[in-house]
Amino acid sequence: MRPWLAFAISRNSDNADITQDAPGADDNGSGTAAVIEAARVMAALPTHATVIFATYDSEEQGLLGSAHHAAALKAAGFDVEGDLNNDIIGASVGDQGEKNPGLVRIFSEALAAGADPKQVNLVGNENDSPSRELARYAQEVGDRYQPDFKGELVFRLDRFLRGGDHASFNAQGFPAIRFVEPVETFAHQHQNVRTEKGARYGDLQEFMDFDYLARVTRYNVSVLASLAMGPGCPDSAKVLTKALDNKTQLTWMPVTGAVSYEVVRRKTTDAVWTDVTPVGNVTAATLPFSKDNWLFAIRAVDAQGHRGVPAFPIPQR
Question: Does CATH place domain 238-316 in 1.10.580.10?
Answer without folding.
Answer: no
